[in-house]
Amino acid sequence: MTQNSENTLKIAHQGFEDFTHGLATGEWNDFLNMLTEDFTFWFPNGEYHGLNVGKQKAKEFFEYVSQAFNSQLIITSVERVTSNDTTVVFEFRDEGKRMGEPYKNRVAISFDVREDKICGYREYFGSDGKSN
After folding, report:
1. Disulfide engineering: 91 pairs with which of 3, 36, 77, 80, CB 3.0-4.6 Å?
2. Are 119 and 112 in contact (CB under 8 A)?
């Protein structure tokens, strides 16, 4: 593993810890502080479908996620972590209540890392939101 890969993995793991905390509590400041100003994110559906640009847009998105899940979306297991020099992918299962209805899913997210910040995020999910 190269030094760059080790740093990427270290930054991404800290980001994932802060991301997990944000999902569970609605407190996103630590995660948002890890993002570059030119941060981009891709989301597969809804109001934020497609490519979104900027740290402010990310703040709006993650606050929206907290509202939808009443700040109580819990990651129940991490299935796999895969990485290279610039990107780390986390595959996990999560559950909570979305708009008051039971929710479970399998999700993969990727963080692109530049120096000591996260500059990109992509999310993919594939279940019906009720099973995982």
Report:
1. 80
2. yes
State pTM to two decimals: 0.91
How many degrees, rounded to 5, is the angle at CA 57 between CA 55 and CA 60? Answer: 110
**In whole angstroms, what is the distance from residue 99 CA to residue 53 CA?**
26
Task: State the Cα–Cα distance between residues 12 and 118, nearest whole angstrom.
Answer: 7
Residue 48 gets which letter from DSSP?
A: G
Which residue shows structure tokens 């502080």?
33
Structural element, H or E, at residue 10: helix 3-25
Q: What gap in Å lies between CA 92 and CA 106, rounded to an integer?
A: 6
User: What are the average pLDDT values for consecutive 10-residue runs of the chain, which has 132 residues?
Assistant: 83 98 95 97 93 97 92 92 96 89 92 97 76 54
Q: CB-hemisphere CA count at 13 Å for 80?
A: 8
Q: Which domains does the chain have, with CATH numbers?
A: 3-125 (3.10.450.50)
- Give the residue from 109, 126, 88 showing the smallest Cα distance to 4: 88
For residues 112 and 31, what is the distance between their CA atoms, to the nearest angstrom?
A: 14
